[in-house]
Amino acid sequence: MKAVEKVRAERLERRFGHVLAVAGVSFEVYGGEVFGLLGPNGAGKTTLVRMLSGVLSPSQGDAIVDGISVTRRPELVKERIGYATQEASVYPFLTVRENLEFRAAMYLYGTAVERAVAAALARFGLEEVAGRRAGVLSGGWRQRLSIAQAVVHQPQVAFLDEPTTGLDPLARRTVWDLVYAEAERGMSAVVTTHYMDEAERCHRVGLVYRGRLIALGTPQELKAAVRKKYRFYSIPAAEPATRDGHEGVVDAWQRGGATRIVLKPDAPVPAGAIEEEPSMEDVFILKIREENAHALV
Amino acid sequence: MRWSRVQAVARKEMLELRRDPVLLRVILVLPVAMLLLFGYAVNFNLKRIPTAIWDRANDRISQALIHELEKDDKFDIVYMVGNEAELKQLIDRQQARVGLVLPAGMLEHIRAGKGVKLTALVDGSDPTFAFQAQVGLQKAVGRLNARLIAARMLAGEAQPPPLTLAPKLLYNPEGNTAAFMVPGIVGIIITQIAVILTGLAIVREKETRMLESLIATPVRPGELVIGKVIPYLIIAFVDTLLVLWVGHVVFAVPMRGSRWLLLALVFLFVLGSLAIGIVISARSRTQIQAIFGTLVYYLPSIFLSGLFFPIEGMPRALQLATYLIPLRYFLEAARGIMLRGVGLETLLKPFVLLAIFTALALLLAILSFRKRLL
Q: pTM for the full model?
């Protein structure tokens, strides 16, 4: 991975009236990196992405995108980035090609538009539907078009807000493959999602909760961090009630025919328990649990 | 400002319009339907007014007058009665709307060189009707008078008849309502196309979250506004020409003044109206809000512009309020150009005021179209 810094958020903050939607978030994204912003609905992911792309001005802090400050030169930032909104934004009465042409013309002009559109149709496998109206496309195809639009001008950085929400697993995989293909040619992608398994697909992940960044690192780093604090076991056919009966049980839930339990490192291990690796879901839930515990204090 | 971006926005807007079957109908059918509706239904030209006559004279003069009344199809003599009470009763029951009393001995009086006083009972409940009926009566009497004067002059009789007042209608002698209405309909249609369609076009982008995508591109507010406005400018022009053409063919509406001046006027008015549409849409979150916002602008425009109700008849405060209504200036100038055939030197005031309105509206449009979401 190249160590060229493409995005640097510096204590970004945004208030809507009395509500603090994003509170002092800082992180970096490097060239060719796929960076996941993971968090539940309403955590502030979209607000964060809007500030990074110059759509929304921060109440405080700044972000440097491809070397340019979003607070000082948002117009310049916009020329270097691509942005796909949460719902696939396509014009239903326009064909796939026309949608791409329109978006490309916002950045390029003359023959460069045609070249960029042809390239995007090829990269995203949209040639077969190029003449079809966007309104008749299925969700997966529409999302593909939406991302193709965001990167039709081959930007340095792309912000993709929940590109996989509402898609079936196959379409989701396609979206991620396309994002990686773009990253391979050097583009950095900031992708928001609330699907835990998708976090595993990112080079690095930031966990956003209640407007704050509560964890940051590669999926491996994040999992290793929780493994230091907790141990994860699977007990065949046991009851979730284990939580109450045993000392040191942090969490427990039924999973198929087994119960998964999370223990403190020094807690006694129940008989028949098999140790497991933590998943990103574990990381996420435990981090949120810690956050909430702090909030109560 | 990069022209290629403006072009791309305009092209996209045109494509969307062309492929939206509902919008296309609104653009092409609505103006013509409105023109026909206003032209035929809102017709202030009265024809075949049911009339009752008490002919006490029953001589050559009274017969000649009845003949005059029936001649131009304005009056339909449905009853001949024997006393005034009957006449009154017919009007009360609305079986007749005009009652005319022709006094006894008309011929003798005229021969003796004395004036004859005719009594007309006119249903005054509708002032427009009453006025038209009176004008119609005056015209018939005037025509007969002219014939009588001529006959007496030929006969070498010395005494001139008593002076009679013959009203003369200028510019629109046939009292053609369509001629008066067509400039107004052009104004209404421009207001509708410009304010409503433009408003909806932008709010639609907001509702579908397209605006957010656009805001994240380097497109500037000015480029977006101009690009969006161009197709509607073209549509408003096409609609204006369509209405003028249909008005000319179907209702024989005259075009006495300069066509270029009229087009310049249409251009100014369309531009200002489009800007208002943008201001409304920039402040609305949903299409429903935009429609209500439009009505707030549209209804006072119609009632205070002098389209249906003469401004002279309004209370002072409302008269002052009409200065805020751009449709007023448009109507003043359009009627001047089309019906009276006058030029810019006469219409300088409405033109200048309309230009000021348009400039302010455009400024407001660009200011209110904020590129950031909040």
A: 0.76
